[in-house]
Amino acid sequence: MAMTSVPPRSPRRRAACGAGILLAVCGTAAPRAADLNAQLPRAAPTFAMVDPATWIVTLSGSIQAVPRYPGASDYTAVGYPSIDIRRVGEPRRFSTPDDGFSLALYDDQTFRLGPTARFVPGRYYGDDRRHLFGFRDARFAVEPGLFVEFYPVSFIRTRAEIRQGVYGHHGTVGSLAADYLVPTEKFLFSVGPRFNIGDASFARKYFGVSPAEAALNGRVTPYDPDSFYSAGVLGAVTYTQSETWAYTAYAGYTRILGASGDSPLVRRPFGDPNQFQFGLRVDYAFRMPALF
């Protein structure tokens, strides 16, 4: 059988075929690139281009002015450190100063879940010898529990915590929060409502007055609150100077309500149902090889 030879393609024909393939590839890639740009409106930081076997460790130092104890009318300065570890390419999660210390065991773009813990400052006779005479000390409390976060849309974070006192008090407490986020190139603004609840055990520990305490103090009557709740708002602004340094300023207001808000311990001259907090946080980030 005779074989028909195929004439070689001319350079002009090869160029035309190459141009057609190039146009087809570009036509397919263009909408994909547009979709990617829609998801990432800003250029990825340099950290995102590092080997994924690298961690970004963020060390934070915070100082804030808070009521000396729940319901107090005077304030004290409190400082504390914190740490955040994430793999390169993973964005740092938004958090607020009133979040508990948390570890996410499940974490995706819209949902987080894991253990959390908070510390509640104690009320001691030495805090106000004049007004707290006769009252038993309410030791600082440790409250471990669980948290869950949900982002219904990218610019709204909701968070709930349920905690159990294991030291200082043995009540059950919870908190609900929502934050509206407004990011810019260098700043992140956030503001949102807060709601806190507690059972009778928690309320009696910090806002109750026993008959013996009332008799010794002589300026208050016995009081037995059956619940605790408060409502307020928190706002913050974060300035990101670079991939290494960031600074956050925040302020919040909470009003103690209900049975605990009627306690004589949150009325002048013993205390105040209006509770404020102000603070500053400095973040320092660096890279290190991932340990696991």
TrEMBL record:
Location, primary (coarse class): membrane
InterPro entries to which the protein is assigned, alphabetical: MipA (IPR010583)
Location in the cell: Cell outer membrane
Keywords: Cell outer membrane, Membrane, Signal
Range of residues in the leader sequence: 1-29
Pfam families associated with the record: MipA (PF06629)
Family in the record: Belongs to the MipA/OmpV family.
This protein's name: MipA/OmpV family protein
Organism: Methylobacterium longum
